[in-house]
What we know:
Elements (H helix, E strand, L loop, with lengths): L2 E7 L5 E7 L6 E5 L10 H8 L3 E5 L16 H14 L5 E6 L1 H12 L4 E7 L8 H14 L5 H8 L2 H6 L1 H12 L3 H12 L14 E6 L7 H10 L3 E6 L5 H4 L1 H12 L1
Parallel strand pairs: 3-4, 3-5, 5-6, 6-7, 7-8
Antiparallel strand pairs: 1-2, 2-4
Helix pairs in contact: 1-11, 2-3, 4-8
Bound molecules: the ligand O=C(O)CC1=CCC(=O)O1.
The ligand O=C(O)CC1=CCC(=O)O1 binds next to helix 5.
Amino acid sequence: MTVQTLTIVTDDGVRLAVEVYGPESAPVLLLSNSLGTTMAMWDPQLADLSARYRVVRHDGRGQGQSTCPPGAASMDRLGRDALTVLDALGAARAHFCGLSMGGMVGQWLATHAPERLLRLVLANTSACMAPAAAWQARLEGVLSHGMGPLAQASLERWFTPAFLAAEPEQAEWIRQMLLANDPQGYAACCAAIRDMDQRRTAALNTVPTLVIAGQADPATSVADAQFLVDAAGDARLVTLPAAHLSNVECPQQFTQAVIDHLG
Ligand SMILES: O=C(O)CC1=CCC(=O)O1
């Protein structure tokens, strides 16, 4: 696969690491990663999606190779980062697929910039992840003690016990991705989730939307996904036999569901 790598600078000076794959003439598909991962989380989907779409993936601010100023990020800021990427690539409209925090960015785009979206995939996500105190505790924990203490519990939310037992190399790949996080960048994104509540704007989503949920996801439940479907004007639900990182645990089913929706 041929990749074009670039750095896009936002209006607040953040450097976003971006990769572009696939035919130049194909519709753009922007992928948005979850908290604690990088754009590499989309590796299982890359070959199939880039055969059909102009796939653009980037490390969200504070993750991977993307920078982040100290302090809190916000969902508004993460959403405007996504628009900055589209603007820099000259993409007037694009498909968007985001998982967890990436799906929160997708919700923000559906509300604030629907004219930029073709079709939307919201995977393993929620309109609100209360209580705020839990996010505050998590961000204070990483700033004081680093990523290490979080790793095992995160993997146990992100994958089912059966997957962890059957696919130790995949689990280790994701564990190393999480451990490599800059605690300051991770904390900035925790603050964005802490302060987010998109429940009252969810009904403004009229973009054709696929919501994907993991049947065994303890972080963002099937009920959270159903809320997004019920609120939106044109949405349907697919559930997969997975926990939170359903695109890694059920890669073929996830990819097929996305292709079926985007066409
Ligand atoms: O790590 C978690 O708690 C799950 C999660 C919430 C937002 C996100 O991107 O991952």
